[in-house]
Design brief:
With 141 residues, the protein is mainly alpha-helical. 78% of the residues lie in helices and 0% in strands. Helix 1 runs antiparallel to helix 2. It is rod-shaped. 2% of the residues are buried.
């Protein structure tokens, strides 16, 4: 069953998306720091093990790990940039929604009240409909 979409649910969802973007950005920052730390450790290990005469297999393994951290680190810049842009667009969309809601809030509330009714209070034609210039032809049975 699809969730009912309302003005409030969209506002709440945009708040959640903004928080998710902020949390993701902070996570990417932590991952970046970890990558920098691990790359530094890799450099240190290679220097130490080379000085102690470690075999080429062990050095190659450490080098591959260091390269993997370097690859992750290089991708984080784009992820952070995209996440920041997404967060900004969510904030912008929410501001536009709120601006639009301010203009149409009364009409929207009226429409929601009418939509929730089980019946209409009157079948009478209001003056706006009565003064319309459209002509409708009736069909016989």
């Amino acid at each position: 069953m699809a969730a009912k979409v309302t003005y409030e649910s969209v506002r709440d969802e945009s708040d959640e998306l903004t928080l998710m973007c902020e949390e993701d950005f902070a996570t990417y920052e932590r991952i970046g720091k970890r990558c920098e730390r691990e790359i530094g450790k890799g450099d240190w290990l290679i220097a130490e093990l080379t000085a102690r005469g470690a075999g080429p297999g062990l050095l190659a393994w450490i080098t591959r790990c260091k390269e993997n951290y370097g690859t992750i680190y290089s991708e984080l810049g784009q992820l952070k940039q995209n996440t920041k842009a997404q967060g900004e667009k969510v904030v912008q969309a929410k501001a536009l929604l709120e601006a639009g809601q301010g203009v149409y809030a009364r009409q929207a509330k009226d429409m929601e009240r009418v939509m929730d009714r089980d019946f209409y209070l009157s079948d009478a034609v209001d003056s706006e409909d009565a003064s319309a210039h459209e002509v409708y032809e009736t069909r016989g049975a």
